[in-house]
Write a structure and sequence with these properties.
Helices cover about 35% and strands about 25% of the residues. The chain is an alpha/beta fold. The protein folds into two domains: about 5-170, no CATH class; about 175-305, NAD(P)-binding Rossmann-like Domain (Rossmann fold). The longest helix is centred in the last third of the chain and has 26 residues, at about 285-310. The two termini are about 35 Å apart.
Length: about 325
């Protein structure tokens, strides 16, 4: 890092919030705008990298930061450079690893990354992005290096460069609607929450379930009585749910399938219900929670990858 970076800081940069949650990072950035803040975005990768294109961190003028653009090995150095940009009042690019002039900062993966450091001048755009993320709407933060500005647009494309501007696309995060009151449900709730997955508890009497189900929502029913799950299962089958899974042995699932078929559901619909639920069989609640969460996250990641593969480059519209 340059000498001026060192002069800008009275204390060493430090991470004050350990998170990859995009809403937390953007809120941290918005909170720092008045005192000086920069948003750092991973906009280029050469070879391997610990984070994906679009990874972000926010840096306050005092050197405090949150978020990650690498595996944690470069963030302090990046924060120091961001503080220099804040004091200079100008955006900049920073290259690290392969192809970088900073030979003392190497990436363990052996690759190289390019970072865009944008000095924030208003929190309005960030607040618009967070509002859309909270509302489960696809949205993008667009960085224009020529104008040194960021805008928010509706977008369902892919994070990356388009005609000289970088689009950081935010898609709805994985959400689980969880039915059941036993130890299995409680254990899954704790595990998923710890993994930063949004979880909403539901029950048989929940008449407003369907509007909550979108293509990034998994419906997981952990009842020991299949009659209790019936209404929720039918609501889930009438939706575009990402994943539908229900507790029980193969025998129980066969009975579930037969009852749904008798009720008039087609085999293609019934096949949407995963049972026995999870990646592997187990009767231990902790292992079952791991099995279920692993399966659901895997389905979600494939869904996101599939959408990115079939989405045209430009699906944007101004907010």
């Amino acid at each position: 890092m340059s000498v001026s970076s060192e002069r800008s800081l009275t204390t060493a940069p430090r991470c004050v919030i350990v998170t990859e949650n995009v809403s937390e990072i953007l809120r941290f950035a918005a909170d720092g705008v008045r005192g000086g803040c920069a948003l750092v975005t991973l906009v280029g990768i050469r070879g391997g990298a610990a984070r994906s294109i679009g990874a972000q961190m926010a840096v306050h003028a005092d050197g405090t930061y949150c978020g990650f653009v690498s595996g944690g090995c470069t963030e302090a150095a990046v924060a120091a450079e961001a503080v220099e940009a804040i004091h200079a009042g100008a955006d900049r690019f920073l290259t690290l690893g392969a192809g970088s002039p900073f030979i003392d900062i190497a990436l363990p993966c052996g690759g190289g990354i390019t970072l865009a450091i944008h000095v924030l001048r208003s929190k309005r755009t960030l607040e618009a992005i967070v509002k859309n993320i909270t509302g489960r709407r696809s949205v993008a933060l667009v960085f224009d290096p020529a104008l040194q500005m960021m805008t928010a647009v509706h977008d369902s494309g892919i994070s990356g460069w388009r005609e000289g501007r970088f689009f950081r696309v935010f898609r709805p995060r994985l959400r689980i609607l969880l039915g059941g009151n036993g130890v299995e449900a409680e254990t899954l709730l704790r595990l998923a929450t710890g993994a930063d997955v949004e979880v909403t508890r539901i029950d048989e009497a929940n008449g407003s379930l369907r509007p909550m189900i979108d293509e990034e929502t998994a419906v997981i029913l952990l009842y020991h009585d299949i009659e209790r799950e019936r209404a929720l299962l039918e609501t889930a089958l009438a939706s575009r749910a990402l994943y539908i899974g229900a507790l029980g042995s193969q025998t129980t699932h066969n009975k579930r399938r037969a009852e749904l078929m008798r009720a008039g559901y087609k085999e293609l619909d019934v096949d949407r219900v995963k049972g026995p639920i999870g990646l592997f069989k187990t009767k231990n609640s902790c292992a079952l929670a791991i099995s279920i969460l692993g399966e659901v996250v895997g389905v979600y990641e494939k869904h996101i990858e599939g959408n990115e593969a079939k989405t045209p480059d430009d699906q944007s519209g101004q907010l």
